[in-house]
Automatic annotation (TrEMBL):
Residues 9-238 form the ABC transporter domain. The keyword Transport applies. GO terms for molecular function: ATP binding; ATP hydrolysis activity. InterPro entries: AAA+_ATPase (IPR003593), ABC_transporter-like_ATP-bd (IPR003439), ABC_transporter-like_CS (IPR017871), ABC_transporter_ATP-binding (IPR050763), P-loop_NTPase (IPR027417). Belongs to the ABC transporter superfamily. The keyword DNA-binding does not apply. Keywords: ATP-binding, Nodulation, Nucleotide-binding, Transport. It comes from the Bacteria. This is ABC-2 type transport system ATP-binding protein.
Length: 318
């Protein structure tokens, strides 16, 4: 268990209501310093609302929040000097140059002029913008804008960085390069909380939280979360996969069946005799197919966590 000095974020009973809608519902969360902590969940699951409360941008309806040893929202103004925040939308000025954007953000953070000049030059080099300092930000590609936004969010060297779906509109190569920068920041001591829809990004995180309908339904390292599904994932190979899928979805205990090429990836509600029931269903239907156990993936974890009935959702993190 991490000690008090190792904890960057602690939330207990975090709740946010908008009228009758409980956007975030009794969430308990602990993020250790120097981790890349992933936030996953379907659209509308409460990820962005949770991040805004943890940043001090939104007042919770109920619950307690402590970030970097500060009480939030009471000490939110002090917290803002120690955190960076980047949204999925490019939020810098398109009609300013790269250098001008960074200089403006340095001024917002009250960096002394000489320190700001040095920091801007440093970031232009670190984020591979040499020779582009005088280019208008609006003329850059999506991946370049994303890198500039990240550079701007760390201009004051924050201890903690919040990233709200920062890679939703860029190509895979730019996403990979972006994540390399995140790990450089983490290695240098920055704690990072990032929300994402991408399973390949989730696999990169040190630890993950999955939200569904405002509730925390899974929390652990990628290995812990996939290990908890051991024995529940199967691969079905059939000459007619669509026919096999029609049989599969009628088998008791089958939670999902997704076609991937010529095979079907099957997730069962629990380990045990699900494989035997599937093989019997195929035999009864006259479908020729082979059923083989396979290792669970984070996508399986996501499906299992977000397909529970509302009355079975976890009320607190493990």
């Amino acid at each position: 268990m991490p000690g008090e000095s190792d904890i960057a974020i602690r939330a207990r009973g975090l709740t946010k209501c908008f009228g009758s809608l409980r956007a975030v519902d009794d969430v308990n969360l602990t993020v250790t310093r120097r981790q890349v902590y992933g936030f996953l969940g379907p659209n509308g699951s409460g990820k962005s609302t949770s991040i805004r409360m943890l940043c001090g941008l939104l007042t919770p309806t109920a619950g307690e929040i402590e970030v970097l040893g500060l009480r939030i929202p009471e000490q939110a103004e002090e917290l803002r000097r120690h955190i960076g925040y980047m949204t999925q939308q490019f939020s810098l000025f398109a009609d300013l140059t790269l250098r001008e954007n960074l200089e403006f953000l340095a001024a917002v953070q009250d960096l002394p002029r000489r320190e700001a000049e040095q920091r801007v030059d440093e970031l232009l080099h670190e984020y591979h913008f040499e020779g582009r300092a005088d280019q208008l930000a609006g003329t850059m590609s999506g991946g370049q804008k994303q890198r500039l936004a990240l550079a701007g969010s760390v201009i004051h060297k924050p201890e903690l960085l919040f990233l709200d779906e920062p890679t939703s509109a860029v190509d895979p190569e730019s996403r990979r390069d972006f994540w390399e920068k995140l790990f450089e920041l983490a290695d240098a001591g920055t704690t990072i909380l990032v929300s994402s829809h991408y399973m390949d990004e989730a696999e990169r995180c040190h630890r993950l939280a999955i939200l569904d309908r405002g509730r925390l339904v899974a929390d652990g390292s990628p290995a812990e979360l996939t290990g908890a599904l051991a024995g529940r994932t199967l691969e079905v190979r059939a000459e007619q996969p669509r026919q096999a899928k029609r049989v599969l979805v009628q088998v008791p205990g089958v939670l999902s069946a997704a076609q991937i090429g010529n095979s079907l990836r099957v997730l069962c509600e629990e380990s045990g005799d699900c494989r035997a029931r599937i093989e019997q269903a195929f035999a009864d239907a006259g479908v020729s197919a082979t059923v083989t156990p396979i290792a669970p993936s984070l996508e399986d974890v996501f499906v299992a966590a977000t397909n529970r009935p509302a009355d079975q959702l976890a009320t607190e993190a493990p």
